[in-house]
Amino acid sequence: MIPMRPITVWESGSTKRCITNVEGAARFLLDHWPERYADHPLRHIAQEAALDQLETGKRDIAFDNLFASACAAAGVLVGR
Predict the structure, then answer these.
(1) Are the beta carbons of 65 and 74 closer than 8 angstroms?
(2) What is the DSSP string of 39-63?
(3) Which listed residue, of 12, 22, 58, 76, carries a Cα 20 to 30 Å from 45's Cα?
(4) How many CA atoms lie within 13 A of 80 on its CB side?
(5) Is 90 exceeded by the pLDDT of residue 22?
(6) What SS3 class is residue 25?
(7) What are phi and psi of 15, to 5 degrees?
(8) What is the pLDDT of residues 58-80, one digit of tens each?
(9) What pLDDT score was predicted for residue 13?
């Protein structure tokens, strides 16, 4: 697993999730992203960045901020 700074998101209306690794972030972007923000550019950039890290196994510290920004844009960011 590739660790990242913990970022808490709303997984559903009343369920929070603390994401602590790139694998979890990638899963969230694919499986739990709000439908109305499915085509948001930041989501697509974050998905590609997550997949790149998973493919190479190399940590990109900028990903934390990118993922948090995408979550904020979709209204699911609780906190960093």
Answers:
(1) no
(2) T-HHHHHHHHHHHHHHHH----THH
(3) 12
(4) 12
(5) yes
(6) helix
(7) -115, 120
(8) 999 999 999 999 999 999 999 87
(9) 81
CA distance 15 to 20: 16
Residue 74 CA to residue 78 CA, distance in Å, equals 11
CA distance 65 to 34: 19
In angstroms, the CA 37 to CA 55 distance is: 25
Which backbone phi and psi does 74 adopt, to 5 degrees? -90, 0
Contacting residues for 51 by C-beta, under 8 A, at least 6 apart: 26
Residue where the block lists tokens 């990109």:
60
Mean pLDDT of the region 38-60 = 97
Whole-prediction pTM:
0.94
